[in-house]
Every structure is written in structure tokens, then in C-alpha cells.
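In this section we turn from sequence analysis to structure. A common task in structural bioinformatics is to predict how a protein folds when a small molecule is present, because the ligand can shape the pocket around it. The inputs are simple: the amino acid sequence and a SMILES string for the ligand, here fe (ii) ion. Study the lines below before reading on.
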Amino acid sequence: MLFKQLLEADSCTYTYLIGCEKTRQAILIDPVLDTAERDLQVLEDLGLTLMATLETHVHADHLTGAWRLKQRTECQIAYPKMLDLPCADIGVREGEPLRVGSVTLYPLFTPGHTDHHHAYLIDTQVQKLLFTGDALLIEACGRTDFQSGSAADLYDSIYSKLFSLPGETLVYPGHDYEQRFVSSIAQEKARNPRLGCGRSKEDFVALMDGLDLPYPRKIDFAVPGNEDCGQCPANVPEQFRGPCLASDQG
Ligand SMILES: [Fe+2]
């Protein structure tokens, strides 16, 4: 398996490239519009063909690169099936593994950050890699105060679907804001200040309800844009239009 972790610095989003060494097919988990050209260059450098983009959820903090990458490579766009997005080519859901050459990704339905969020597990003979999106972050978790979020659901998802995996499972988050790259299930169970050390659901819900987080600066255009697979809506403010214009020309 080929694997590369890529960062989009403005939204601190991690994009993950997963490829099959034999077939040279690849998939990108949570690509960002702003770094679509970088991603295309990485694929070219590695001699890989992009088969699909794969979203963990409809993001509120950045526009996905899915549509742009589809225009440039004719890849398919995969989203959680329950969203039933007209722009998506593939609907993913738990119980229906996704194959990229010899690599298999297992979708795990993990609502809470949003009601349609999915994590993805790769289970090789050597190691387990878990792409947690915005459900479980390194010593943190995704917020639950907008976009169909539910702290109680997030707690249940993390404890039943993620913390139940073997401790050595590597945790690759959708974001990190402090230059951290990877964790593990054992590390998060022991060290996550919001969820670790067996914190109760009641405690967690109270903590999340009291966070009082700022309104996301891109949500008003990111959510409708991402429900359209990353096509820029008309309401993208001037200071964020750069990647949209490049897309129009591409
Ligand atoms: Fe998110």
C-alpha cells in the first residue's frame, strides 16, 4: 500500500492519499479545493491514477477538492450514501467495503460531529490505519454544536466504533491545529482530555455544550458548496475566491 499524509494549512485539514502499488490506483480522503493542484502533482510524481475522492462528511471549514479533481482526472466522487447527493458518483456506507486495487477501506458510520459522518478503516496484515475525519482528533474531537451535530451521538460513535478497535490502531485525524500528525486508539483512550480515561457520556455532553466556540468563518459557503461536491457557490466572499477562480479556469 502507498500512503501519504498531506496538509492544507489554512484550515489545518489533512488529506490522505492511499494507493495500490500493483495497480497504481489511488484514492484521496478529504481533498481540499485550495490544494487540488498540489494533490494532482503528488499523484503524477508517484505515477498514480486517481480513482475516486472520498469524503468523511460535508465539511464546514473548507471546500472539498472533489469536483475540481473530477474535472481534471475523471475520477469518481464518493460521499456517505445517506446524503444522497446528486453530484456524487459513489455512495459509501458501513458494511460495504471500498476497494482501491489491493487496498480495502471499511466505512464506519460515526455520527455526532454531523449526522452522516463516516470514518474509514484500513486493516492490513501489518497494521491498522483509521481515518477518523472530524469524529476523533488528537487529544480532541470535532465540534457538535452545528450542522446536525450531537455530543451524545459522538460519544456513542467513538466508544462503540473507534475505542473498540485494537489499541495499536493508528489514528489519522481530519485536522490538527498543533502540528501533530498521528495518534493511536490506545493513546487517545489514555490521553484524550475530552473522551479518554473512561469519561462518562454525561460529562462529555456537558463539556461539549459548554465550549462556546466561534462561528466558523467559511461555513456559509462551505456547506452548500460541499453539498455540491465542491463547486463554488455564488456567496464565496472575495478573500476566499482564489481557489474558485483557478477552478473555473481549470
Ligand atoms: Fe467537519
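Residues 2-214 form a domain with the Metallo-beta-lactamase; Chain A fold (CATH 3.60.15.10). As an exercise, try to locate the residues that line the fe (ii) ion site and compare them with your own expectations.
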